[in-house]
Amino acid sequence: MSSTQPKVITKSDPTRIAITWSDGHETVYPAAVLRRLCPCAHCVNEVTGQRMLDPESVPDDLQQTDVRLVGNYAICVRFGDHHDTGIFPFPFLRDHDPSGA
Question: Among residues 11, 54, 73, 99, which is most buried (max CB within 10 A)?
Fold first, then answer.
């Protein structure tokens, strides 16, 4: 099993999402960090790859209101600012571990 496959996704705290990966590593994502990383076409220009979302516009206390699986490869998060178009593939999430691990 790949280290980019989650075993458990915990969303019990609205300010964070925790993922325990198949290799035992746990990553905790503050909702604001995920929102700033959103890879959707509203947040990143599809042609140039330039980030369109100003990270300063995302409050540090932003909450997530829903987390859904997208197939067996990603999650979709609804944030407190009602943004919900980003799909976060598991390898993307593991690569963007806030702890740097």
Answer: 11
